[in-house]
């Protein structure tokens, strides 16, 4: 499998990009949520690269991308940066999947530049502010740099179904963020939904939509997935046993739902399948 890692200099900070899979295959862009990075898709990517050129981006303030002190974390600005990267990669008319608040960035990108997006997949993305489940355990910002694993785990356990073992990688990613980035990213997502609920935004777009939701989500009310029915033609699939992060908890089920949808909304290069068949 071909793997390529790059850093793209943009006006407000460098953006890290990773590509997996055949370069001549149809592109599939994956956008992570808040307090995460491109690595949150690690378990899912190997299931996608047989048929896609999988592109992952670390949003500003996350992973290996820049974290400028004065950078804007507004959802629309994150979408603008992603669009700039796609332009540099010469990618358009692609399926985009976003996990959690990454689905908001994907939506903003589709609204900003419809030609870049052939279809959207939202994975446990809150449709509105009131869909969020209040959390009884929070993180004290003043203690951010001194938090132990035992202190972090209860605070982020709601990101998974009850009883799911939190991956070491997830703890490391969260600890790798500064409290500045964490607070600005989470506030930006809330502000985006408060301004206009996601179904209302999506209903004005002519973009095919697949919504995946873990039935055991402890961060966003699973019943709120039904609100996406307000989007004409939207398809909603619930994942039994999965929490807020089915891309980590059940990547095989996630891929089984995502791949057929992506295939039905992907423009494949004319010689791509022939070239793949000839190589067998």
TrEMBL record:
Matching Pfam families: Abhydrolase_1
A GO cellular-component term linked to this record: membrane
Domain AB hydrolase-1: 26-251
Record-linked InterPro entries: AB_hydrolase_1, AB_hydrolase_fold, AB_hydrolase_sf
GO MF annotation list: monoacylglycerol lipase activity
GO biological process: acylglycerol catabolic process
Stated name of the protein: Pimeloyl-ACP methyl ester carboxylesterase
């Amino acid at each position: 499998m071909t793997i390529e890692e790059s850093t793209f200099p943009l006006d407000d900070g460098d953006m890290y990009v990773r590509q997996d899979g055949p370069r001549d295959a149809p592109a599939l862009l994956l956008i992570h949520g808040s307090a995460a990075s491109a690595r949150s898709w690690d378990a899912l990517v190997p299931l996608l690269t047989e048929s896609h050129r999988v592109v992952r981006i670390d949003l500003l303030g996350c992973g290996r991308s820049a974290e400028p002190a004065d950078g804007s974390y507004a959802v629309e600005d994150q979408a603008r940066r992603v669009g700039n990267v796609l332009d540099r990669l010469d990618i358009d008319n692609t399926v985009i999947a976003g996990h959690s608040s990454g689905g908001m960035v994907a939506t903003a990108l589709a609204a900003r530049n419809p030609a870049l997006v052939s279809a959207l997949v939202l994975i446990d993305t809150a449709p509105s502010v009131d869909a969020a489940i209040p959390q009884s355990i929070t993180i004290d910002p003043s203690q951010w740099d001194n938090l132990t694993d035992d202190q972090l785990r209860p605070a982020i356990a709601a990101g998974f179904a009850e009883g799911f073992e939190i991956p070491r990688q997830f703890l490391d990613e969260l600890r790798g963020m500064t409290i500045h980035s964490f607070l600005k990213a989470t506030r930006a997502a809330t502000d985006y939904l408060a301004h206009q609920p996601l179904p209302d935004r999506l209903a004005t777009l002519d973009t095919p939509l697949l919504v995946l939701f873990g039935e055991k989500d402890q961060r966003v009310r699973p019943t709120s997935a039904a609100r996406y029915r307000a989007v004409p033609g939207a398809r909603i699939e619930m994942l039994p046993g999965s929490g807020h992060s089915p891309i980590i908890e059940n990547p095989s089920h996630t891929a089984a739902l995502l791949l057929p949808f992506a295939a039905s909304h992907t423009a494949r290069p004319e010689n791509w399948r022939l070239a793949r068949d000839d190589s067998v």
